[in-house]
Design goal:
heterodimer; A: mainly alpha; ABC transporter involved in vitamin B12 uptake, BtuC; B: mainly alpha; two-stranded antiparallel sheet; 12 helices; 2 strands; 73% helix; disordered C terminus
Chain lengths: 337, 288
């Protein structure tokens, strides 16, 4: 740090020019806008082809996508709606059991049962969480932490759906390419759809609720309804991931309510950078392969995750993607005070 | 009669578990989600001291209490101090640290039912015709002593008054020269030691298991939610309500339903009176 000087950040000219859609006149500006997006989309679409020769890492890629969905759900709830949800596994479990039931008793094929389970599960989760929606901050976090635990206990107590053994013999995907591209394309579609949603009118209202719900209410908007809609979107992503998992493992059981599905998405969001949904995806892409590498250590996996999470929160609270996008969009220079 | 006695014992268990959490939150608005982890931590430290260092129970217990308080101080000084005021990060960071602690114990191989702490006094008495062992009576006694001690401490000592000052109005208290960081550290130390005390009292009734960390956290949160977070009188009342509810559920339904009833109580509280029994302040700001 130089004395008497201050670091100043200014938007790059190209960012300013390409911010307004009218100014998109050169390839340079268009590629400035498109490059990061193309990198992600292209990378994810090409990955199954590249990983074709490493079947194990192909599975890891699918798990990356699943956690990316869950992280997006967490990020959306936490940074857009202002509801910190510590119970992401609740969505996974509901979606997983939903898909398993649809497949087993109604003989839905995976491509039908996953969307149906996601929609139905999201409605179910929203309905169950409805009484908690007026809560904020710590209170909502606490209660969502309890929901998956409670589901586990109920299933154990009543011996529902195969009790502790879970439900087996669920149909898998017939075609491995369909299996992979179904998930990858869905993830990308949901990512961009959710980002679009956040800048639509309803997104403005949602972010308004996060910042000051009383004034949103004073404008004559029913905040509980809007919160319920936002929760439905997040629950939909979570249930979709859960339903897909059930078909991928051909099994649905109590471990779908496990801690992993709650804490890893949180870690991914924090590491990747919350508040833009893309950070959540980047975090999942970074953390999940790491977790696969740590799989041999058993419980140490969760330990290392939690430690990474704490360190990142304390040292670099803004997350990786926010840091990178700042470097991409702005330049820094020293100025005299 | 049986329900009355065991209900009381159970209520004091919950008071022991929840009081540390509510103290920290009441004083510094810090949600200490590592509460359950400190509970388990104290139990294992006491066990390690007794079985690896061959200390008798009392010194081991005291040392483990001190180490619990130290962990509380460390969590505050190293982590919470830097992210104070960022509500979401506080929750995530303390929860992550708690999970890390609990899972480390699991990784080190502390699982199963082989780890037990001894009871202080063997034997039991009959109250009416219900057998109650001394340890359970100890739980009630220690719970009562702790309540009285906290009451005396916060009403009649300068440090205790400072704690209450910060709890009521942080800015005004800071203007009068009370250091907010110091009181928060102290509250974390006290709260963690209380969690440790609960562990030393409750683990002799069963064995030390890592899962107890999560369950403790949930019960502590449940009591605080129903009582109104940060309200000490509400915590005691809620502990009695939940304590009796749990005992009644266990004796008439099954153990599995304990958690279900606890969660049901929380949801009912949230719907009927979102701020809990006595949680008046910050009602609008924080909860609705």
């Amino acid at each position: 740090m130089k004395t008497g000087m201050r670091k100043e950040r200014i938007d790059r000219g190209i960012k300013v020019r390409s911010d307004g859609i009218y100014a998109l006149s050169s390839w340079r500006e268009m590629s400035y806008l498109m490059a990061p997006r193309a990198l992600l989309v292209g990378g994810l679409l090409l990955a199954p082809l590249i990983l074709h020769f490493f079947p194990y890492w192909q599975k890891v890629l699918l798990i990356v996508c699943i956690y990316a969905l869950l992280s997006m759900a967490f990020d959306f709830l936490a940074n857009y709606v202002g509801l910190v949800c510590l119970g992401g596994s609740f969505f996974v479990g509901v979606g997983g059991y939903g898909a398993a039931l649809l497949n087993k008793y109604l003989h839905f094929s995976p491509f039908l049962s996953i969307p149906v389970a996601a929609l139905g599960g999201a409605a179910f989760c929203t309905f169950l969480l409805l009484p908690c929606l007026p809560l904020r901050g710590v209170y909502f976090a606490i209660i969502t932490l309890m929901y998956p635990l409670m589901m586990t206990r109920i299933i154990e107590a009543f011996e529902l759906f195969g009790g502790t053994n879970g439900m087996m013999d669920i149909a898998g995907f017939a075609n491995p390419w369909a299996e992979q591209y179904f998930l990858i394309i869905s993830t990308l579609v949901f990512l961009f759809a959710l980002r679009r949603l956040a800048v639509e009118d309803i997104g403005l209202v949602i972010r308004g609720i996060k910042d000051n719900d009383q004034s949103v209410r004073a404008s004559g908007i029913n905040i509980t309804v809007v919160k319920a809609q936002a929760l439905f979107c997040a629950a939909f992503l979570g249930c979709f991931a859960g339903a897909y998992l059930a078909h991928m493992y051909m099994w649905a059981g109590l471990s779908m309510f496990a801690l992993d599905f709650s804490i890893i998405p949180i870690a991914a969001t924090v590491v990747g950078g919350g508040g833009c949904l893309l950070g959540a995806v980047v975090g999942a892409i970074l953390l999940v392969p790491l977790s696969e590498a740590l799989r041999a250590f058993g419980p140490l996996r969760i330990v290392s995750y939690s430690l990474i999470l704490t360190v990142v929160i304390v040292i670099k609270g803004e997350g990786l993607l926010n840091y990178l996008s700042r470097k991409y969009d702005q330049f820094e220079r020293w100025v005299e005070i | 009669m049986e329900i009355l006695i065991y209900g009381t014992v159970n209520s004091f268990k919950l008071i022991l578990i929840a009081f540390g959490f509510t103290l920290v939150y009441g004083v510094s608005r810090l949600p200490n989600f590592a509460h359950g982890a400190i509970f388990v931590f104290t139990g294992f430290v006491a066990w390690i001291m007794m079985h690896k260092l061959n200390l008798p129970f009392i010194p081991a217990a005291l040392l483990s209490l001190v180490s619990a308080a130290l962990v509380g101080v460390l969590i505050y000084q190293v982590i919470l101090k830097r992210i104070r005021g960022m509500n979401m990060n506080e929750i995530i960071a303390t929860y992550a640290i708690g999970v890390a602690m609990i899972e480390t114990f699991r990784w080190l191989g502390f699982k199963g039912t082989t780890f037990t702490l001894p009871v202080l006094f063997e034997g039991m008495v009959f109250i009416g015709d219900v057998p109650v062992d001394y340890q359970r009576l100890m739980v009630v006694a220690v719970g009562l002593v702790m309540l009285v001690a906290v009451w005396v401490f916060t009403k009649f000592t300068k440090t205790g008054l400072a704690l209450r000052g910060i709890a009521q109005d942080e800015r005004a208290a800071m203007m009068l020269g009370i250091d907010s960081d110091m009181t928060a550290t102290l509250a974390m130390a006290l709260g963690s030691a209380m969690s440790g005390l609960a562990a030393l009292m409750l683990f002799p009734l069963g064995s030390i298991v890592v899962e107890a960390g999560y369950n403790t956290l949930i019960f502590a949160l449940a009591v605080c939610m129903v009582g109104g977070i940060g309200s000490w009188g509400g915590t005691v009342l809620a502990a009695f309500v939940l304590g009796f509810l749990q005992v009644i559920t266990v004796s008439y339904l099954a153990t599995h339903f304990q958690m279900v009833v606890t969660l049901g109580a929380i949801i009912a509280t949230l719907i009927i009176k979102p701020s809990g029994f006595f949680g008046k302040h910050k009602e609008l700001e924080e909860r609705v």
